[in-house]
Design a protein that fits this description.
This protein is mainly alpha-helical. The chain is about 60% helix and about 5% strand. A hairpin with an 8-residue loop joins strand 2 and strand 3.
Length: about 650
Amino acid sequence: MKRTTRILHVLLLSIVMVLGCFVPVKAEDDFDAFLTEENRKIYSSDYTEFHFGVIDYKKFGFTKPAVRLPDASYEAFAAEAARFQASLDRLHQFDFNALNEKQQHDYLAYEWYLQCNLAIDKYPDFYECFSPYNGLYSDVITNMTEFTLYDKESAEDYLTLTADFPRLLKDMLEFTRQQAAKGCFMTDAALDKQLTTMQDFVDKKEENPLIIIYSQRIDELPGLSEEEKTSYKERNRDLVLNTVYPAILSTKDELATLRGSRSVTGSVYEYENGREYYEAMANNKCSSGISLDEKRDYLAKCLTDIFDYTISHYSLGGVTIDTFNDPEEDLAYLAEHMEDFPKGPDIVYYPSYLDPSVAQPTIMAYYMPTPLDDVTSNVIRINGGIVNDDPNTLYYTLAHEGLPGHMYQFTWYYSQDINPLRHTINATGYTEGWAQYVERIMLLRSPLSTDDSEFLSCNVYLGYIMQAYADILVNGYGYDARQLSAAMEAAGFSGMKEEDLQEIIDTVSAAPGQILPYGFGLCKMWEYNERVHASLGNDFNLEDFHLQILTNGPRPFEVVESDLQKYVEGKGQTFVKDFKLFELSATENSMGSIVSFVSKHIMLIIGALILLAVLVLWLLFKLIRWIIRKITGKSNKGD
């Protein structure tokens, strides 16, 4: 899942508050108004966030910002940091204890969001605009291909943004040159990927997604004459072929001249302030403020737990899900197996495959969050080059992105009574952790056997956790292949080849922190499942547990844990601290599902039991009557 302006911190937000000019406020109404005003400022300052965030912006009192793509510069980072600091100062003027419970969660979520962004914005040198994994270039391309046309105004806005792309490329290139002059630049392998991606994009010529998709959406836009449709298509085609393509090729050639600018041979750890930057980023990616040492030790424990569980319970099954032929069938099946998840709003969804020229090499799929005022229409894109038509991978990927993953998670929360600001901010470790967590649940509900589905989910989890652990060791502590080998052996992975270890090091060095929200997040979600289950025993209800996780939306894990502690203590139990991941078997872990199913269908079950009892009594009566007749010699004739 991605929303460029929520993940990347390169936007120039024009309103900078002057510290000390606010009177402390306490009232609940004032706090809600403050958050709404904060969201208004974001939407009124950034067109990308505005367009993807709301449809009927006048209803919310938002002002349409200038139609332009983001800025990329040191000045943009400084302006954004000033805005974040001003917002944080204003937030801290509210009396936390005077707020109601819902507002306190909004307070903590927004405080966390601001603090994380402020911490990262101190290190603009390490942001790679052209990273092939999570850079601004690829994200802008994605946003353009996902740009929804609502009316003529948005159709014109799209063309304005397309015309602005060369300006952004020029700014990104200048920013990258300044970073490279300080020795901060992507790895050669990452550069090669990016150069290839840019060339492939231009080589599409007339078949480029920027041309094809826009034309399709113009055809679908009501109220346009044929002459207007033709005009829009031709204007866009001309911009892509004669403005965007030359700008991309020129930028590509200039980027190639920066090869070798990276002043370190290893990870970000080797840079001055690299460790500090990585720790700030790890807090944000993991949605957790525990120390880097604690994150390292936590992942080491979880990796050992799941490894031990896997090798002691399961062996490779090699069975695939051959029941479904396309994403629609997968999602239909998933929708029919949503027991133990609180009912969400009625939605429709549109899964489709990405054009290879806009598919990022490390993204299997993504879900586009809906606008604030319309949760019904949902888009899921699939990277066929990675999924590669593998039925198992496609199934759990759609569980992750769709049901009950991101699509369900976000639409459920957005359909609640939330302040608009909560639609804009995020906690990546929490959201990715949830989507990873539900993969195992839905695999256990797949047509595969329990053994096959458990082995598959554990194998996938082991990969994510191992890479997250390696990410911290390499980027946070500067581990080389020898040190990484010793750490992996301690976790159970003995005998790893040196070339495999070096490949892991190269991967996490090229995209530091990218895998953290997945590996760390899934561990936290399953930890909480285990601890709540152990605390409540037979009273554990899986749907109630999910409700506790989902309610109050994306937030740091420390807040989630506090919520769960209150939930457990509210049932008269103590929230246990110790846990071992997957200590409960798949059957035991489904006890909450059984209890939930029984509670939902109690009347039907009682009715069926009554009918069964009547049938048994009738049969018993007939049997006794037959025995008596046999004993007495009476015939059954005439019965």
